[in-house]
Design a protein that fits this description.
2 copies of one chain form a homodimer. Helices cover 46% and strands 14% of the residues of chain A. Chains A and B meet through helix 1, strand 1, helix 2, helix 4 and helix 8 of A and helix 1, strand 1, helix 2, helix 4 and helix 8 of B.
Chain lengths: 360, 360
């Protein structure tokens, strides 16, 4: 209903309309630009930016308008923070681990290899973790809030089965940056095929494995035709958190009301994206398996070899960089506490549910 | 900063202040009352109502003020929906399963026995589930939004160990309503000791077991002194979702801007409460165990007996009430799909994390 209907309406018990005080000011009208790292074909992530923009518009009564510029139009996907710093945009939607060149500890803003699951990551953010991330960003004149998560991703597509840790030696595997670096320690050859090339590269044998995202995103690529073994879990992305990153000076110049609206709208997007992945993944994984993909868990021995490689890499990075060490230690200590509790209530609850389900 | 500083400030690149249009109206000033079912000693849940009220105040620039009335002052904890319907309050913070006398299907708004975990429940809410709940409430002139979750609760305190399903026979166990009803099928005698009585009742042998909430709430009761066995998981509350319930006519009379603000603020509370439980539970469970509690998993046979009892009860309730059946079927079908996916990525990720953690 329009506000004037509301003002004219009856039944206003509990709603007290008081005279506009002499100093009352309408909130300012603002138009901002959002640049994103994520291509539109990652539909659920794209819906997060849309949910954010819509919530801001609704909560500001149409006064705060944010225009989304698709990935690659205003800045290249990995250059979105530059675009915010040089004023081409006020907001970037991104995964902060893409920017670990700025500061390696930013990987913990997204969800590091063998890190936390999405819910634990959210608890970390709300109780100190996101402040820690913003300490890394303040020198770059940026401030960020969590605004989406894929949940635990898949391990990706393999042309043949992995039977032991020795199968990792020489394996040409499309993997994200830090994870690829870690796995060189066990002989993996990390690669970086683009989306348009990945099926051809797998088909031609140029690569033998490719991590992508989650079933809802993987389905469109039909990679089972060239690499039928679909491995899980994607332990390097037990959580892939996204952030909305703001230009700090423009953030600071906002009325507190608008800061509150932007933060709450980020929360809306944060919950929306995860819920949407969760709601859509079950049907997607079912269709993928029906189409011919063969689901396989990573063998325990493979996971343990990867774990050792990850710990060795973390140790080296901690020794090289006290900032990395500080964030790593805070993140891993929070994670270890989370799993202390997780193994008591959540995990046994899920365990029984899964057992009973498999019985039919 | 104050808004007049903002208006006077420099550095407003990207912020366009336009002249107040002739028709511009300031948003109305509103004062509402919130009544809650939850006593203040459930501190995390209480913090959810506070986070909601604060977010609404901030996002409305101080124009929308909500006053929280503590449990029992304006209405008894189980009468809060009546208070909203008769105009004593505009909002109730409650768990809708408390009100299953109105409509038994409301149990699915909170998280039913052997139902979903908190994250799955949130996906359900966002993709049809909460609309289904509001269809149950519309005849009562109410509308509700999720605004908090405890996560999976504990199974509670036992004076002796449970070794088999036959130990359930005659067991006097403090339990919530529907769960108690289900477990009469396996011989449990459900009871309802108040908080101030539960330790004395356990100590005197009047009851032999008592479910409470989660470690962060359980700790204050020190029940390990009289019932040292602390069982998990609380399968009747894999999710305990709370809602904020609004008087429908007052909700409908609000400007759309304020509806958007109330919904986003509910989302803020929803995420806040779960994250706070997750952040605080690990230290609480550690202290509880150090104080002498003995952690025990429910034996598989006990869980299966309870599962059978729950399914039998659900079948009877479905046969008796087509509305219950419709919501039950939607909820359980969503749940089964969720666990199809959960067992692929999330569960194996958590499994490996817990294994490695226990190795040290």
């Amino acid at each position: 209903m329009k506000r004037r209907d509301f003002l004219a309406g009856a039944g206003l018990a509990g709603v007290t309309e008081i005279a506009t005080p002499a100093l009352a000011q309408t909130s300012p009208t603002i138009r901002w630009t959002l640049t994103t790292s994520f291509p539109d074909y990652l539909q659920v992530i794209a819906s997060g930016a849309q949910a954010f923009v819509q919530a801001v518009r609704d909560m500001s009564d149409g006064r705060f308008i944010i225009e989304i510029h698709p990935a690659g139009t205003l800045a290249k996907p990995l250059d979105v923070l530059d675009a915010v710093r040089d004023g081409r945009a006020e907001i970037a939607q991104t995964a902060l681990h893409y920017h670990w060149g700025l500061q390696p500890a930013l990987v913990f803003a997204t969800g590091a290899p063998f890190g936390m699951n999405a819910r634990e990551q959210n608890a970390f953010f709300r109780f100190g973790g996101n402040d820690l991330i913003n300490e890394l960003l303040v020198d770059h004149k940026l401030i960020a809030f969590p605004a989406g998560n894929t949940g635990c991703q898949m391990g990706g597509w393999f042309t043949r089965e992995l039977r032991s840790a020795s199968d990792l030696r020489g394996l040409r595997w499309r993997l994200p940056g830090l994870t690829g670096k870690m796995l060189t320690r066990v002989g993996v050859v990390p690669t970086a095929s683009s989306r348009s090339q990945v099926a051809a590269d797998l088909g031609a044998g140029a690569i033998e494995a490719a991590a992508w995202v989650s079933p809802v995103d993987d389905e469109a690529l039909s990679l089972w035709r060239v690499a039928p073994y679909y491995y899980y879990p994607g332990w390097w992305q037990g959580s892939m958190a996204m952030h909305l990153v703001f230009a700090l000076d423009k953030w600071n110049a906002l009325p507190k009301q608008y800061q509150a609206i932007l933060r709450a709208a980020s929360d809306v997007a944060n919950s929306d994206v995860l819920a949407r992945y969760d709601a859509l993944n079950p049907q997607a994984v079912r269709r993928i398996v029906e189409a011919g993909a063969k689901l396989r868990p990573f063998p325990q021995e493979v996971l343990e070899a990867c774990w050792q490689a990850a710990q060795a890499e973390y140790r080296e990075m901690c020794e090289a960089d006290p900032v990395f060490q500080r964030v790593h230690d805070a993140y891993m200590s929070f994670r270890n506490d989370q799993y202390l509790w997780w193994q008591v209530a959540e995990y046994p609850f899920d365990n029984f549910a899964i057992r009973q389900r498999s019985k039919g």
